[in-house]
Write a structure and sequence with these properties.
The complex is a heterodimer of chains A (378) and B (282). Chain A has 378 residues and is of the alpha+beta class. Chain A is built from 10 helices and 21 strands. Chain B folds into 2 domains: 65 residues, no CATH class; 214 residues, MetI-like fold, CATH 1.10.3720. Chain B is built from 14 helices and no strands. In chain B, helix 9 crosses helix 10. The chains are: A alpha+beta (378), B mainly alpha (282). At the A-B interface, strand 6 and helix 2 of A face helix 9 and helix 10 of B.
Amino acid sequence: MGRLELRNVTKRFEDVVAVNDISFELDDGDLLVLVGPSGCGKSTTLRMIAGLESPTEGQVLIGDEDVTNITPKHRDIAMVYQDLALYPHKTVRENIRFPLEMRGNHEDDWEQKVQEIADILEIGDMLDRYPSELSGGQQQRVALGRAIIRDPSVFLMDEPLSSLDAKLRTTMRSEILQIQQRLDETMVYVTHDQEIGMTLGDKIAVMNDGELQQLAEPKTIYNEPANAFVADFVGSPDMNILDADIQQSGGNVNYKTEGFTLQNSASTDNGLGQKVDTHTIRLGIRPQNIHLPSNITWEYDEGQTFTADLTLIEDVGAVSNLHMEVNGVDMIAQINGMTDLEVGDSITLVVDMEKLHFFDRQTGERITGPNVALAEAK
Amino acid sequence: MSLWERISQDQALMNRLHRSVAVVVLILVLLWLFFPIFWALETALKTRAVTVQSPPVFWGFDVQWQNFIQVWTETALPTYIFNGLLIATITTILSLLLGVPHAYAISMYQSKIGDSSLLLVTVTRIIPPITILVPIYFIFSSLGLINTKIAIIIAQTAFLEPFAVWIVKGSFDGKSSSLIDSARTDGCTKFQAFYKIMIPVSLPGIMSAATITWLLSWTTFLSVFLLATGPKAQTVPVGVFALAQDTFTPWNLISAAAIIGAIPSLVLVSVFQKYIIRGLVE
């Protein structure tokens, strides 16, 4: 009922290709987060699902019905907008019941339904106020109520939280999740905030330049990013991505970057040496996988370390981001808790060799991932 | 340090100085603006003999209140006012009926036709009406519509509709496009979104356009002067002007007529003044 499918959907605006050949399927009740930087085509994709834009090529199917050329009015969708788009000349009550009015339902049902939904959203006693009299969070709920009352097959959200302050955003984020789970409706949530994507969705679709980079569960996106773009985009702070040459010496494999060289000993072999055709790659190391020697319980040797000068320390409370420079190359490491280290200190860091990511130097595509099985054996 | 340097460093003193200068300038400007009105009022209350006295007389004359009654009963002034009310109101309604959807189309839809239309609208506003005087006369003459209110209404609507479009478009442009999108995903057709959401939300801008269009129509001289040859179609500006055509110019009666003729617009302005200001600012 709430199935959503996009088949080879492309959108061209004159010379510009905003969305290029996107296909995916969602089952009833799935929550898909569509993430990507500004201008990547995610909002355009959402608008094509809503019917506000028509695809240049391809099809949109909602619940097995081809709705590609059907107007938004006749699609079983509801949408919440970035600026909420509440009708300023209508009261909260009138705003929420507007979709029912347009549907032409019986007037008797309206009052009850509106009150029900307003109570669930905790705005039940504000029904006679105007949007301008409400706080940001309350307005957000009105927008949600207006969408919920349509009881659609698919909910569409276009960055609905970006106009809220950070604290409110976190609260509303979990509320939206609760509502989605409670109603068990299919939802497509567009955002540029990858953190929301990671915490909110059953599935994440990462887009860039109009193309779908990867669609998978958050865990997969994080641990096995399909290319350098996804690896860099998801995860905070950004993954350290360096050009590296692979050299074989004896039984070991060396990854030589501009700043330092890492060595795989026999016990931590990710099998890369045999698989890759080219000896120049891009190496990805997440800040969370770079450690201070004092924080490590496993054995390592010198080949898995490098020395750098600290340039900046960000104490974020639960974690600290150490910005450093090694031979002209900037890196970031993230450690738990706070630190006594100071800017200018020269420190040695250990890299978790099993959590390395490898990408093709030319295409950015992932070559092979971290050896998760071996890591679990630790 | 010179006196001026010392003064200009004292912020509070400078503020007082600025304010005083502003007040003086304001008073001078108000005097400049209101003097003609004051003079007209004075003139309306004089006998004709007093009006032509040189040097001019400002006080100490016999006040002739009956001038107002005389000009009302002995000239076509009531007709001029009635014509003006009819023409201005119908012109405004037509300009809005055409102009609001027009502005919506230009504002909401990016298209080449929209751009061309906007260009035409702008050009119409810039062209001095006097340049197309002759062709307009010939058009209406060949239609046999000289000295009819219809002709004036059509001519004025042609000029004022672009004006209304300009103001209303400014109002629409300021509204977020997601309002219309939201209406559509809530179940409206494009047209329903237009009249159920966009128009109510833009009502202040539309009222602005209506008020200004009405005033422009009421006070317009050229189109009426061109197309109306007698009281049947003449409005206040032209009618009052016509009173001065006699060899014997009754300045006192003309002034009285002008004062009376200004009353409808004064009423409108006082009722709708916030819309006027808003429309001029946008």
